[in-house]
Specification:
The protein has helices at 18-32, 98-107, 133-153, and strands at 2-8, 36-42, 58-65, 77-82, 115-121. By secondary structure, it is an alpha/beta fold. The relative contact order is 0.24.
């Protein structure tokens, strides 16, 4: 299975860098499992990424998120399968999310493989190059949960 693991965010804004750390961890673990992986670390998602999606069997996006008041993030992270979504919040490139990139790939006639977004709640988005202990703990729980899901959905070949 060929997998693109894309972490995005600003690694110099404390917890906003959790996407990079999580993506690097997942790329390493999935590679050790025997999957063919490619790592992409971005400050923000750019339209150019969409062109390569059809080369992969699975896309994994990793990002930080601000805490939610909707009660949906009891664990402090979300793991969700995502689909193409042409909705763009705002009028600038900072509004591009993975769903929009999938929609772009689809509109260009490119294949859109199954895709997953892992978003981890951050505590601090101030300047700094280390994530907070709370964010690291959430990231580790998210990684463990994702790897369990992945192993069940895509069992290792014997």
């Amino acid at each position: 299975m060929k997998i693109l693991v894309c972490g995005y965010g600003n690694p110099f804004r404390t917890d906003d860098g959790v996407g990079h750390i999580l993506a690097e961890d997942l790329e390493r673990v999935l590679g050790e499992r025997g999957e063919e992986t490619e790592l992409s670390l971005e400050h923000q998602l750019l339209p150019e990424l969409a062109e390569a999606f059809s080369r992969f069997d699975l896309l994994i996006f990793c990002d930080a998120r601000v805490p939610s008041d909707d009660g949906g993030d009891v664990e402090g992270y979300r793991i969700e399968e995502i689909a193409p979504d042409p909705h763009l919040e705002g009028l600038n490139i900072h509004s591009v999310g993975p769903g929009w990139l999938l929609a772009l790939a689809q509109s260009l006639g490119r294949g859109v493989p199954p895709s997953v977004l892992i978003s981890v709640e951050g505590e601090s988005f101030d300047f700094g190059d280390e994530i907070t202990p709370e964010c690291r703990e959430r990231m580790e729980r998210a990684e463990k949960t994702f790897l369990k899901w992945f192993g069940e959905k895509y069992p290792a070949k014997s």
